[in-house]
Amino acid sequence: MTLDSESAALFDHVVRRNPAEDEFHQAVFEVLEAIQPALRRDPGLRDAALLERLCEPERQVLFRVVWTDDAGRAHVNRGFRVGFSSALGPYKGGLRFHRDVSLGTVKFLAFEQIFKNALTGLGLGAGKGGADFDPAGRSDAEIMRFCQAFMTELHRHLGPNTDVPAGDIGVGGREVGYLFGQYKRLTNRFDAGTLTGKPPLLGGSLARPEATGYGTVYFLDSVLAAGGATLADRTAAVSGSGNVAFHAIAKLRELGAKPVTCSDSGGFVHDPAGVDLDVLHEVKNVRRQRLAAYVEHVPSARYFPGETPWAVPCDVALPCATQNELDEQAALTLAKNGVLAVAEGANMPCTPAAVRVFREAGIALAPGKAANAGGVATSAFEMQQNAARDRWTFEHTDRRLKETMAAIHEACLSTADEHGMPGDYVTGAAIAGFRIVAEAMSGLGLV
Ligand SMILES: NC(=O)c1ccc[n+]([C@@H]2O[C@H](COP(=O)([O-])OP(=O)(O)OC[C@H]3O[C@@H](n4cnc5c(N)ncnc54)[C@H](O)[C@@H]3O)[C@@H](O)[C@H]2O)c1
């Protein structure tokens, strides 16, 4: 597939207008390419500059973040928040703290979020933010001071009906708690629905930490079921060892699969007996060590520095770390080893060349827009609980998550079918999400 001439001209325009934002360009190209069948079928979707508006963020906030470390030294970082689309609801999407974060990163993530959030059917706009702050090796007090300095600027742009951030890489419950504390102090309001992924006592939803990883596995389970297969006894290769990876591994185990790998930016662990969640929790969440320490606790496991897990033979692969972490070579290796399906727990983890390999080999690829939408869906459940001053049980929230993932899976499959591309989840997810947001944009008039 490629772009028709009008879409190609729009893409060129996006590239010229947003120089040096490669990840954003990649995300825009992927969507424009995937929605071609819908544009062919209904040329009216281009009316009123709809595609041009869709590719231009509604607002972008860049700000300086000044904070002091434990030795009293001052540091300067850059903060970002992009509100990409509020056609369906308040801007919604996480904050990422990582040294490589740039405006292009945040824009790609916010753009992806448009379609993902639309797919949940829960009335969510799309945004994303973060800072080029590296939390590695920082003390708890330093993290708190950074979060407070970050929120001191950002708070004026947020609100439960305006813009609702959550976590992402480098931002978990601890950081969201500190961010919310500063928000509350500055605004004089306990507006719990302004941030999601909060610790439970501060109004956080039960099952929100688990939701992205669990949801990815629920989606993968549906993908296999659609082909008459199950997850039981399947070997899984998982990348990452953070929030998404951890809970994906947990759910894979629960459903009878055997996840044998996990990774961080330093390398990966292969544990043929199945990744031990207690050890992973101790190493990453309690001691906050590098993953290499895993093998000190599990001598039968091996650590491979500087490598990714994709050469380990597996039936299913779940990239759950970061963007572009699974390239063409890795995809070819996975295909050669007979992988049945790939589910993106991370955002845009497969490079365009890897996506092509999976497509051509007929390997089911569940794109992040659909497969990892369980996190933001459960954030919407957290907002509902906060608005109603209610608390749902873990089981109730998990059931709603399961239903949501099943509905997204169905929407992707039926949309792909309708457009003559049965089983193509990449096309199905992009078109199904796009149609929802396009209809909302048309209904709102030219804004
Ligand atoms: N947290 C959520 O609810 C959520 C929702 C949807 C999508 N995602 C996406 O899932 C992915 C992981 O997010 P998370 O919340 O688990 O973050 P996290 O900070 O908890 O974990 C990130 C993981 O990625 C690894 N990592 C970071 N940079 C890497 C690199 N360059 N190479 C290899 N590994 C690297 C880290 O070591 C860590 O294991 C991201 O793409 C994020 O955007 C997260």
UniProtKB/TrEMBL annotation:
GO molecular function: glutamate dehydrogenase (NADP+) activity
Bilayer-crossing regions: none
UniProt superkingdom: Bacteria
Residues making up the signal peptide according to the UniProt record: none
Entry keyword Oxidoreductase: yes
Domain Glutamate/phenylalanine/leucine/valine/L-tryptophan dehydrogenase C-terminal: 205-445
Alphabetized CDD domains for the sequence: NAD_bind_2_Glu_DH
Keywords noted in UniProt: Oxidoreductase
Pfam family, one: ELFV_dehydrog
Oligomer status and interactors: Homohexamer.
Family affiliation: Belongs to the Glu/Leu/Phe/Val dehydrogenases family.
NCBIfam families: PRK09414.1
Descriptive protein name: Glutamate dehydrogenase
Organism the protein comes from: Amycolatopsis rhabdoformis
This protein's encoding gene: gdhA
